[in-house]
């Protein structure tokens, strides 16, 4: 029964689970957990089931848990359907995800380091100007930002999708807090060797902060990949749709079969499920360190 | 913050500071400060199908919005939504955290399962809900289950009386966000010192409710406040699931869907849209400040 989990969770007082009442509570707990697991996994199963079924199977009047036989051909059908620009949308999302995350990390980490470590007379004023933007609730800014971006002529372009999202006051704030607690001795050793701020940052600070970067990168990438409102506002023709805008448009326009749509959903979740599988430790760190998703 | 360092001179550090912070600050000015200012200006002007102010109208846009039944009813829709989603999320995510935290076998497995839906977008989840679970026809899962008990089919997303559409709207957000708040609660639970539980046991507190009431709950206060505030702010900004499940319908339209409709949909009235966005921002900021006042200040960060 021993688990490898290092934990400081609630210790069960000795003798507790041996009483009759304790055993019943324990049993109820497992029942609750089992029901919750089924409910949480069911939607994922439905995606797979519908993605690999025939249209007739999905719309059959009698609901079945398993499709009659698995249609692996649905994968190629999806990518060969020219009325549905799914490959383009996935590519756009990948570009937005990678460049958006990389750019945001670069800008926010440098700004955070500057604010935390480089002495400057007006540094506190700059810091307040950054923190003030945290007061503004993110989603209501879509109309104001659209006004600026459309006068730059960036509607329906990757620039318009990516650049306005790069400057996150919250990310800069998190990096500043993190760098404030970075061990000074390491930086001073580099300074003694003659490195300036720039060299110290890139050769000492960044390589020693990779887990923190990974945590922020993971939540930023997921946020970018899943974001919907801004891409919807800015992607006014199909060549600049991200995968989320494409999926949403297919549902409302009903130009696509249900099994094809679910195959597209399955493909769109795949990268994130992989991130969850391999980077979960960083993700959970990111969530608990920031306590905020976007 | 301006600490002295050893080597470089004042001019050198000023230059370094702006090398690090400058690009970010320029972007912030263009994409955070400029939009707000521009919106503020537009909100006092007539601006239809254009982003340049055309005719000064004073506070007319604000008066229009505050007397617009559709805008007011969108605030009403939000209130009903918040009334359901905030307490449900709070109680259920805390329950999941307590369950997972007390399990001794396969704890990482359970945590992962409940956290996994966070990987899905609102678009994806809405699509599963709309086309597979609550599609309102016989091959929908919800109606199939009801059928086992001999209950009539329900058109979940279009029935206004009784308002069945709240069930898909609420459950989709619960599925997506419970795991996220559960992680916050688990982190909070693990920060509680085991010594407190040992002391409670020695003092004869009954495990279960008594321990929860007198040890766990008071120690979780900071986390609980953070969860409430984050959750409420997120609810104010609900857009994706309403847009994808219901569309721009007048019976259940939260503020952002309405603002999207009037400023970027068929009508493009950026003057009124700006006024509405600023009113909404003011409301959210006010509520956040109020919550901070009520629950104690500045605890959301830890």
Give an overview of the whole structure:
The complex is a heterodimer of chains A (294) and B (302). Chain A is mostly helical. Chain A contains 14 helices and no strands. The longest helix of chain A has 33 residues, at 258-290. Chain B has 302 residues and is mainly α. Chain B has a single domain (61-295), classed as Orthogonal Bundle (MetI-like fold), CATH 1.10.3720.10. Chain B has helices at 10-42, 60-66, 69-102, 107-115, 122-133, 141-148, 166-190, 194-202, 209-219, 221-236, 240-245, 255-264, 270-295; strands spanning 45-46, 55-56. In chain B, strands 1-2 form a two-stranded antiparallel ribbon. In chain B, a hairpin with an 8-residue loop joins β1 (45-46) and β2 (55-56). In chain B, α1 (10-42) crosses α13 and α12 (255-264) runs antiparallel to α13 (270-295). Chain B is globular, with a radius of gyration of 25 Å. Chains A and B meet through α1, α4, α5, α6 and α10 of A and α1, α3, α4, α5 and α7 of B.
